[in-house]
Amino acid sequence: MPIKIPDNLPAKEILNQENIFTMDESVAYHQDIRPLRIALLNLMPTKETTETQLLRLIGNTPLQVEFVLLHPKTHTSKNTSVEHLEMFYKTFDDIKEEKLDGMIITGAPVEQMEFEDVNYWEELTQILNWSKENVTSTLHICWAAQAGLYHHFGVRKFALDNKIFGVFPHTVEVPNTKLLRGFDEIFHVPQSRHTDVRREDIERCPDLEILSESEESGVYIAATRDGKHIFVTGHSEYDANSLKWEYDRDVSKGLPIDIPKNYYPNNDPSRQPYNTWRAHANLLFSNWLNYYVYQETPFELTANINESLASAQL
Ligand SMILES: CC(=O)SCCNC(=O)CCNC(=O)[C@H](O)C(C)(C)COP(=O)(O)OP(=O)(O)OC[C@H]1O[C@@H](n2cnc3c(N)ncnc32)[C@H](O)[C@@H]1OP(=O)(O)O
Ligand SMILES: N[C@@H](CCO)C(=O)O
């Protein structure tokens, strides 16, 4: 949350240079407050696990959030029960006449298919188009980041010779970017992908900037300069055991898989892995929720979101 300080206090300039978010009394006085309406478009087969992981991160801020769970109606889920979907989930048709403050779109285990072969691709492209006018900021995770970069900007994904699998050191590429406020210069993120997007393809898009990357695992976060679309290739939401679960699954199926890098103590899969990315995961989600959603979204959600974004000042 911002520090509310008297208008014109000299410390304001120093704090702003240090990337500390301050707000004049006059601005704070005029802020209206209401719960944020955030949708989770859950494309993962392991829906309940993903709900818990993301709710844990979204819940760790002082902001009130009304969470709407969405699943693609054009896909019949094998791994999540109909009862669970009927009880807790809506579809795009249920909300397409409304507006959202924020939307998170999850990864999906379809990265080795062509986008157009994914059976809910048509529905997803409708949602992505709709998000441009009706959502203040959308956070795309892993495969959804590849899908969003491809659909909005024509950035392609490429198959990797070896799965990027492990916990990798990442760097902040744009100093003072709001999304990475408070981050250490080097921080760790789990990655688990058979495909990749290329830095040079993103750099060719003037609307995009690369906010974070890793020497070993490539681009981590790209975003549109207006903050409306954020593309995160890694899985900061993963639990300590998520990579272990994927590794054990592949070993038990006899699939070729390396031990996840920088994960098990002494690289020994019989030992319990540590979570070394939780603090930055919490910071990423609270920065997004605060600076890209709460500070930018109009109080009247029916108002024109793009007008509000254009006039918003931090
Ligand atoms: C790159 C990223 O985004 S990483 C995020 C993805 N990671 C994960 O999903 C990790 C957890 N998932 C898993 O371990 C596995 O998918 C499992 C164990 C749940 C199921 O694996 P399998 O039994 O081998 O595959 P299964 O045939 O059930 O299909 C798995 C999923 O692939 C997706 N899928 C497969 N084919 C298609 C298709 N043509 N169109 C759309 N989705 C498809 C679906 O999501 C499907 O699960 P769902 O029907 O419950 O939604
Ligand atoms: N994280 C994924 C990659 C596959 O898309 C898994 O190993 O299940």
UniProtKB/TrEMBL annotation:
Pathway participation: Amino-acid biosynthesis; L-methionine biosynthesis via de novo pathway; O-acetyl-L-homoserine from L-homoserine: step 1/1
EC number: 2.3.1.31
Organism domain of life: Bacteria
Record-linked SUPFAM superfamilies: Class I glutamine amidotransferase-like
An example molecular function term from Gene Ontology annotations: homoserine O-succinyltransferase activity
UniProt-annotated binding residues for substrate: 163, 192, 249
Annotated positions for site Important for substrate specificity: 192
Principal location class: cytoplasm
Record's keyword terms, sorted: Acyltransferase, Amino-acid biosynthesis, Cytoplasm, Methionine biosynthesis, Transferase
Site positions for Important for acyl-CoA specificity: 111
Reactions the enzyme catalyzes: L-homoserine + acetyl-CoA = O-acetyl-L-homoserine + CoA
Annotated localization: Cytoplasm
InterPro entries noted in UniProt: Class_I_gatase-like, HST_MetA, MetA_family
Stored Pfam families: HTS (PF04204)
Active site: 142 (acyl-thioester intermediate), 235 (proton acceptor), 237
Enzyme class, spelled out: transferase
Family the entry assigns: Belongs to the MetA family.
Function summary: Transfers an acetyl group from acetyl-CoA to L-homoserine, forming acetyl-L-homoserine.
Protein name (Swiss-Prot/TrEMBL): Homoserine O-acetyltransferase
Gene name in the database record: metA
